[in-house]
């Protein structure tokens, strides 16, 4: 089995889905976390031409860009659907979650009050449409096909953040609520959640 090393900060954000994939696949990996204070030095030599994280190394081969990393791991471990149609739907959900992350963080960190209000409005509208579309599109016990895939892990990862902001997130989405609970209660994920490194976000 190859040696996997995933390097990121001590946060969930753009690396947690990759971590879930390792956990679900029972594949050991080095979970390297760079502290805020070590980052300026580490950044000088990080194996990414954009000088950013996450970086995945597989037997020394370097992978960058979180979505490409997740997609590679999901394909390698068998969580990327059974055919091209399923693969497309998983990608579509992955990109919609990425857009949500961007809207959420951009609105959170915008210093200008008026711009912040507009960004928050846009984020809230997007979130509401996203929830309705996913609730209506659920195919089975899982978002795509009838087994757990990368799409469910993307949904779970962003939902952890959304629930921290609003505990009644799933008030009108009973099927999504069941999906969230199903993933949280998956034995391997539950075990990971109970012992993962505590992080600010
Ligand atoms: N599109 C890239 C974005 C990577 C990115 O923005 N990483 C941030 C952390 S989430 C980073 O390394 N920030 C530190 C810096 O830019 O100095 C991906 O998804 O991997």
From TrEMBL:
One of its GO terms (molecular function) is glutathione transferase activity. Signal peptide: none annotated. GO terms for biological process: glutathione metabolic process. Residues 83-201 form the GST C-terminal domain. InterPro entries: Glutathione-S-Trfase_C-like (IPR010987), Glutathione-S-Trfase_C_sf (IPR036282), Glutathione_S-Trfase (IPR040079), Glutathione_S-Trfase_N (IPR004045), GST_C (IPR004046), GST_superfamily (IPR050213), Thioredoxin-like_sf (IPR036249). SUPFAM superfamilies: GST C-terminal domain-like (SSF47616), Thioredoxin-like (SSF52833). Residues 2-81 form the GST N-terminal domain. Pfam families: GST_C_3, GST_N. This is Glutathione S-transferase. The lineage of its organism: Eukaryota, Metazoa, Placozoa, Uniplacotomia, Trichoplacea.
